[in-house]
Amino acid sequence: MDGTGAPGRVEDVHVEDAFQVHEMGAGALRLDCSGLVVAPGFIDTHTHSDLAVFDDPTLSFKSLQGVCCDVLGQDGVSVAPLRAEDVESVRRQLAGLDGDPEGLEWDWRTVGDYLSRIEQAGPGIDCAYLVPHGQVRRAVLGMEDRRPDEMELDAMCTVLDSGLRDGAVGFSTGLIYPPCCYADTQELIALCRVVARHNGVFVVHIRSEGDYALESVGEVIRVARESGCRLCISHMKLAGERNWGKCSSMLDQVREARSEGVIVTADQYPYTAGSTMMGAILPPWAHAGGKVLERLGDPVARKKMRDEILSAKRQPWDNFWGWGGPEGIRIAGMGGKDSPRAHLAGKNLLEAAGGADPLDFAMDLLAAEQMGVSMVAFSQSDSVVQEIYREPWVGVCSDGLVGSWPHPRTFNAFGRVLGWLVRDLGLVDWPEAIRKMTLLPAESFGLDGLGRVAPGTRANLVAFDPERVVDVGTYDDPKRSPDGIVHVIVGGVLVVQDGQPTGACGGKVFRA
After folding, report:
1. Does 45 share its domain with 143?
2. 253 and 220, same structural domain?
């Protein structure tokens, strides 16, 4: 199945060096793939392997899913560009999201520097990068909650332009995370005009995936329309039971924009729980100016946070506590491997609190770990997941955080789509399922040479058993890779053979 959505055919696939070619030379390694589906390597369009690639460059937890390319720099919160004075605060902020590999020297400053460091690490799979909005804002405004003036906005556009010139394939933001959440629509339009000049993609975690989801989808469509850039809506979902009924209206918004010529796609992970930094349970104002730890220690500010978090009113920010309560929020990991609270990973907040007030416990935990805590939060519906997946413009992502007790999507997202949504439920046929994991994201993100099985394209290939492929990781045992992914080739290098990682690395850094 070649990635285009065309019916499958029986054919040999020949590889020489890093490319697919017409004829195979004598003495070549031959893999018998009879009974298997051979497809282009899968592309994970929303990942958090930004630091994991230095901790374990093979990234075998991705290749064991058939993933041959990761797109880094997501949610507007990542590692480059990076001012020297911001290293410690960014490291602390990202510890719960991307981990904090021991002994890693954060000595890069530009996007180009960071991409070169990945090249030096010799990644097992291909990597592409998005310039993160948070780092663009930090470079000019720090963590301030305000609009930039004209000169400051020009300076932000210059920082973004530099990152795109260094090879980033686009620009990301996470409009629930500080400092990205302090931006207004006009700021986004101005920055995305820079993205459009580079023919890049705007990848966005929208401002609300719950009570204001329709308004938030409308906002980013407006940004794409007025700036002229391509848009990918990250991990499309509806959170909170009172919002699940909005799915058809949300999809209609995108269909209408696409019919008008706006280039909009989305990606999705196949689970009803999300995972992010636990600091996201706090209202956005609590993070302003980088003073969240100070406010957690202030009784007046802390009471105000509690009142807003526990309010049943419709919220202009995503209230994870309101969606699932303490039972629905599970501690996924701490930034520090030697944390005295590391044993709490895997417990929900009600269990971990041990009889204490769970919200006070959560705030104390964030303060003690200096915000370096990640969580798994339950808020979604299987029926909504399925309805979104049917859309031909929706691809697949893991959004996988690499913590001590991660969400099972980190290890299993692609196996779960193939086994559950495709084979078991039959929501789309096999060629379409492959297209949604390969050519669709390659075209959406401008990853030329990826996403197809054809002579002259990069030799990223996966062979899987359609009858056997299945996710096996669970929320209680998440670090288990799918069954049924048999062989994986990255850049002509066999990185998975007979379901086992070979330890070889074939990846490259994809520079736009």
Report:
1. yes
2. yes
Q: Is the domain of 327 the same as that of 432?
A: no
Instruction: Please check whether residue 287 lies inside any domain of the structure.
Output: yes
202/208 Cα distance (integer angstroms): 17
Instruction: In whole angstroms, give the CA distance from residue 341 to residue 125.
Output: 33
Residues listed for the chain:
512
Whether residue 4 lies inside any domain: the answer is no
Annotate 138-195 with DSSP letters as a single string. Answer: HHHHTT--S---HHHHHHHHHHHHHHHHTT--EEEEETTSTTGGG--HHHHHHHHHHH
Neighbours of 354 (CB within 10 A): 10
423 close to 466: Cβ distance less than 8 angstroms: yes
pLDDT reading at 93 higher than 90 = no
pLDDT tens digit sequence for 94-148 = 877 787 888 899 999 999 999 999 999 999 999 999 999 999 999 999 999 999 9
Place of tokens 């009889």: 355
